[in-house]
Amino acid sequence: MIEVCEKCYNALKIGKIVEANECMICSGLLYRLDSIADEILKRLKDYEFDTFLIGSRSYGSLKALEDYLNLDDKKRLKHRFNRELSKVLARKSGKSYSTDPDVTIIYDLENPSFEVQVAPLYIYGRYKKRVRGLSQTRWICRFCNGKGCEVCNWTGKRYLSVEELITEPIREFVGGKHAILHGAGREDVDARMLGNGRPFIVEIQDPKRRKIDLKELEKIVNEFCRGKVVVSDLKFAKAKDVEFIKSAGFVKVYRAKVVFEKEVSREELEKAVEKLKEQPIHQRTPLRVLHRRADLVRVRRVYDAEIILHRGKVAVIKIVAESGLYIKELVSGDQGRTKPSLSELLGVNCWVEKLDVIEVRGGL
Ligand SMILES: [Zn+2]
Ligand SMILES: [Zn+2]
């Protein structure tokens, strides 16, 4: 006959009541909730959190016994333990139970021990990149794989990145282990990101602090970036916002300084720019990104294009484009891979000498 503690007996109405420690189901765990909660809180003492979730595992002899007894989910120790421990933990800590928690405690019922999972902290914002020559994400030197060599001047990096500039002070401020930048698209290393800035979310893993003053953080980040990058509009975000930001496909507005192989007239240029707006652009993956992107044809639109300045062999053109259109290739034609292109429409080779993103339409 099965021998159980009083608590398990009251829940299951089976077996014979014995001392708690002899309980074949909980081994007395249900009588040690206080000290278990204390241990958990001790482990979490350096972490700020408002909400928690307790999960537990049974996979061995306990699970086999419960299967044998044909217990339904609500009667299993897992369920009872989670519920009772949650109550004790809430009472002791003043924090509350949540299914979308700041911290998750996973208790191993077969081999009494637990692990703690701290939810990442997500901070949304917009960044402006005021200088050229910054990569958006960390760009490890491929000659030394980040170890440092002559090519990278012993930095291990090919370029300094927006990611390092923004995430490092944030990671430090919240006491996280690691931080990642998720951008709403990206600009080229040699392009600036101006205007209202590009939406991003920083994901900080294993954060110790959550209740932070975002105005203060903004100041700290901007001091750290020394004007190369400026962040604004910081607010707290959720995990699901990362997917939205990365896949939203916001309309972008560009300002391109274009150089022509030979002088073109204002009239010719105006006609060509008008034509860019009239038809979809068929763009095969640009040669310069072919090493990291699949070779396929994208169809994208130019919503608007406007000549801001034109003098002989040089023009500045403002282009409003669908997300995913490569502007340098829209101008150059990329050896016929982008059709139509400004070069093709003009009958004169031209290319982008300088490129700025001046607006990203959309955000969180
Ligand atoms: Zn028991
Ligand atoms: Zn190197």
UniProtKB/TrEMBL annotation:
Residues covered by the Pus10-like C-terminal domain: 122-360
Residue positions binding substrate: 254, 326
InterPro entries referenced in this protein's UniProt entry, alphabetically: PsdUridine_synth_cat_dom_sf, Pus10, Pus10-like, Pus10-like_C, Pus10_THUMP_arc
Superkingdom in the source lineage: Archaea
Reactions performed catalytically: uridine(54) in tRNA = pseudouridine(54) in tRNA; uridine(55) in tRNA = pseudouridine(55) in tRNA
GO biological-process terms attached to the record: tRNA pseudouridine synthesis
Keywords for this protein: Isomerase, RNA-binding, tRNA processing
GO molecular-function terms, A-Z: tRNA binding; tRNA pseudouridine(55) synthase activity
Signal peptide range: none
Pus10 THUMP domain location: 36-108
Gene3D superfamilies: 3.30.70.2510, 3.30.70.3190
Catalytic residues as annotated in Swiss-Prot or TrEMBL: 188
Pfam family, one: Pus10_THUMP_arc
EC number: 5.4.99.25
Protein function: Responsible for synthesis of pseudouridine from uracil-54 and uracil-55 in the psi GC loop of transfer RNAs.
UniProt-listed HAMAP family: Pus10_arch
Family of the protein in this entry: Belongs to the pseudouridine synthase Pus10 family.
Protein name as catalogued: tRNA pseudouridine synthase Pus10
Species of origin: Archaeoglobus profundus (strain DSM 5631 / JCM 9629 / NBRC 100127 / Av18)
Gene name in the database record: pus10
